[in-house]
Amino acid sequence: MANDVEHEKRALRAELRERRQLLSDAQREDAATALTRRLDELVDSLGARSISCFLSTTTEPGTREFVRAAVRRGIRVLLPVTRSDGLLDWVVATDDDDDIAEGLFGLPEPTGEVLGPIAVNDVDLMLIPAAAVDRSGMRMGWGRGYFDKTIGSMQKCPPVYAVIYDSEVLDFLPREVHDQPVTGVVTPTQTLLLSPPRR
């Protein structure tokens, strides 16, 4: 059974990855601009002063302008750094693009003073990557399990929103025991509350 679910997820991830690669530069830029506005609104509506986010790759919904602007507004932004043991370290973001290097999986990650995995326990809001999210709030990542492990281990989890494109909000996703739900999603056109935050 789990094998079937894993095969289903793998096929769906491949389809979603391909769909993202077909977007034009202009579509990506427009999406990033719209997303920055939505993310700003979410941060303001929650009164968040400390958040975690991620540095988007070229095919992901663009978060970099949002991160820079949040830092300039005085919001503390933690960015993830992957570790070989499956955990995430964190670095406080700056508004300088020179502070970015290639991480463990070739993904953009911040350089700077590394804080341990528990640093994220202090944030008011988590913004995380995803391949897709279904309408019950179930999130499917890219298969490495970093964010499932992080969210699952937090004693007091803040609201967690996945940042995705509109077409990646699906009716249903295959799920496994370790998969963690999210509070909602932020897309270029909408912010959806899907499940209540856990306390």
From TrEMBL:
Q: Mind telling me which CDD domains this protein's record contains?
A: BRCT (cd00027)
UniProt keyword Metal-binding present: yes
Q: Which organism is it from?
A: Microbacterium hydrocarbonoxydans
Protein name, entry field: 5-formyltetrahydrofolate cyclo-ligase
**Substrates-to-products reaction catalysed:** (6S)-5-formyl-5,6,7,8-tetrahydrofolate + ATP = (6R)-5,10-methenyltetrahydrofolate + ADP + phosphate
User: Which residues are in coiled coils?
Assistant: 2-29
Keywords of the record, alphabetical order, are:
ATP-binding, Coiled coil, Ligase, Magnesium, Metal-binding, Nucleotide-binding
Its lineage reads:
Bacteria, Bacillati, Actinomycetota, Actinomycetes, Micrococcales
The answer to whether the entry has keyword Ribosomal protein is: no
Broad EC category? ligase
